[in-house]
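HUMAN:
Could you generate one sequence with tokenized structure?
ASSISTANT:
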Amino acid sequence: MWTFSKLSKENMDAVSATEGKLGVTLIAFSEEGTKYATLSDDAVKEVKELEKKLGLSLVALETA
């Protein structure tokens, strides 16, 4: 299960600073045991194209 992360003031300040620097909004999620997949440049491009087509944000995880 994914939940919004509870950030310390120090971590929230770091996120806020990065948001200001990049001009974006960042959302922090947490999940125990998450292992992100390593993708090739072509795979990243394919995922980004799918995100655009679907209007979603996707996260690539390794399968068990």
In short: The chain has a mean pLDDT of 89.
